[in-house]
Amino acid sequence: MIRAAIRADDFAPPAMNGSLVAMSETRPEDRGNAPRLDTISADPHGAWSLLRGPWRGVDRRVVLVARGPDAGGDWAPDGGPRLDHPGLGRIVARELLSGHDVLVLEDPGGVSLATLRGTRSPTSWLLPLAIDMASALASLHSGGHVHGRLRLESYLLDASGDRAVLVDLLPIARPGVDAWAHARAPEQAHGPADARSDLYLLGAILYELCVGRPAAPAEPRDALPAPPHERDPRVPEGLSNLVMALLAVDPRDRYADAEALLRDLTHARRLLDEHGRIPPFELALRAGVRAHPASVAPVGRAAERSVLDDALARVAAGECRRVDLVGPGGIGKTTLVETLRGPTLARGGCFC
Fold it and tell me: ∠ at Cα 137 (254, 269), nearest 5°?
């Protein structure tokens, strides 16, 4: 366990505009020389702070997500869940310091995703990020977790700038934290979040990245914003329709799950690669409702499944593998391939 303390008054305004100091509990005389933690983003009311810098007991630079004592939720003295996806931050340690919940994560190395808000045409760069974010959500949800308070500031880009990494994992490590009004789905005003709430919040993030401003004012909660392509003609209409489906007020009108969203995002990228544009296309909103063939184990295909499992494991380890399934129609090739959907998404892969 990391032994460190954070001054409680450092979390209150106006100190949120500066930086925080990590101090050793065992050597007070060293506190003046303690490493400083730079603020990446912070709530002006002191409810949360996202920090970067060295941390006692951790060799690499780290990101710390800290909550104030009024953030809500029950604290549990553990390191949080085991999350294994390149789009989810790697938790190093967890502390309860001076009444503040601190989650220590490896530093992805890049800037806040909020810095990309409305900076350029989203046609080429946004789709890869959105695919990675949807894949990470699919992995998170498959583990039984719901975030419930996603926002632009929840993510950092990696050092390459090609991947958005969800670093604000305290809502996962600390269930029950209340969502803020500006970072919640409509149904969260009346009850707890579910996986479809996360999809709404992801839609709000994508909307803001597309047009440079939030999707809608807080009131009225049942109002829909103007579609992104109407606010910025550089946004392809096909991508705009997808984002608006995520922002449906009724959860039943959104994508059924992150996997269904992932399939449509992948299809949009294929359209862009092949035709240079993303025209409107039929959205597979309900695809996740139907039972995937993977839910029914193929009979008499243990040997073939073993070959696929081995290939997936080797690809996940960095090798390159190609597997061809050959046979007449109707013998279950698609059913067999679909059995890899869950394991692929759980490893951070893309299934399409």
Answer: 75
Rounded Cα gap, residues 98 and 75, in angstroms:
13
Question: Residue 160 phi/psi, 5° resolution?
Answer: -80, -20
Residue with tokens 């990470």, as numbered in its chain: 136
With a CB cutoff of 8 Å and minimum separation 6, the contacts of 244 are: 203, 224, 227, 228
Integer Cα distance of 210 and 208 in angstroms: 5
Q: What is the pLDDT of residues 272-321, one digit of tens each?
A: 988 899 999 999 886 443 333 333 445 566 777 778 888 888 888 888 88
3-state secondary structure of 27: coil
Tell me the pairing of strands 100-106 and 58-67: antiparallel
Q: What are phi and psi of 2, to 5 degrees?
A: -75, 135
Contact in structure between 213 and 111 (CB atoms under 8 Å): no
Residue pair 8/100 in contact (Cβ under 8 Å)? The answer is yes
Element (H, E) at 201: helix 195-211
Q: How many CB atoms lie within 10 A of CB 20?
A: 23
